[in-house]
Amino acid sequence: MRRGSWKIRIFIGLAIVAFAFIQRCSNKEENPYTGRTQTINMSAEQEIAIGLQSAPEMAQQHGGLYPDERLQAFVDAVGRKLVQSSIARETPYQYEFHLLADDQTINAFALPGGQIFITYALFSQLNEAQLAGVLGHEIGHVIGRHSAERIAESSFWQTLTMGASVGGDMGGLVSGVGQNTLLKNGRGDELESDELGVLFMIQSHYNPNEMIEVMRILKAAAGPNRTPEFQSTHPDPENRIEKIKEAINKYKGQ
């Protein structure tokens, strides 16, 4: 390739990289519910729309909804209690709680905008206070706008990777750095959600120490061959327990 062509490629690559950084800086905003400054490139209404659109597919992947209206009503009641007793009621999000039929996978997760799921496999091992801890944690993900933040970060690294690829052979390296950065941030999301979950439990008059029991249930379910913390998006349960204890001391009396 001619020298002039390389100069043009480098120039275009640098322009794309510069655009990525400018866009990232312009998308900084303070989360009014957590006080944390985040990179967000969508509105709350867009988060809600994404969650509502994705919810049916997510339910289908876990065998659909659990076919017991009584248990679903119980999950709804605990979820509503947490929302009405906390700052969650002041947010624009549409909180809906879904009990999934999956009786093999121990899991709970939240989509952007307030769609929250828990599998029957996990639900069946919890008492009411522990269920409140799990749902409070997932509400924390919604309020923390963690999915929206990850989407914005992913967009930034995709643009950066494209610029590095156009300008030379650094695309793979940049992509790898981006994946590691997102992994690190994911652990922070979990710890922030744990702390918010503890606060919501206390505000709803649940015993926050039951959140510690949830961590022990998750640790036992993972078994002795669980993925080491440095390879996982979730902090080790033992580390989470220590942070939960700190949160309990921080918020007790509220």
TrEMBL record:
Residues covered by the Peptidase M48 domain: 72-247
GO CC annotations on file: membrane
Pfam families: Peptidase_M48
GO terms (BP aspect): proteolysis involved in protein catabolic process
Cofactor note (record): Binds 1 zinc ion per subunit.
Cofactor(s) required, per the database record: Zn(2+)
UniProt KW keywords: Hydrolase, Metal-binding, Metalloprotease, Protease, Zinc
Coiled-coil residues: none
GO MF annotation: an example: metalloendopeptidase activity
Family from the record: Belongs to the peptidase M48 family.
Protein's name according to its UniProt entry: Putative Zn-dependent protease
Source organism per UniProt: Saonia flava
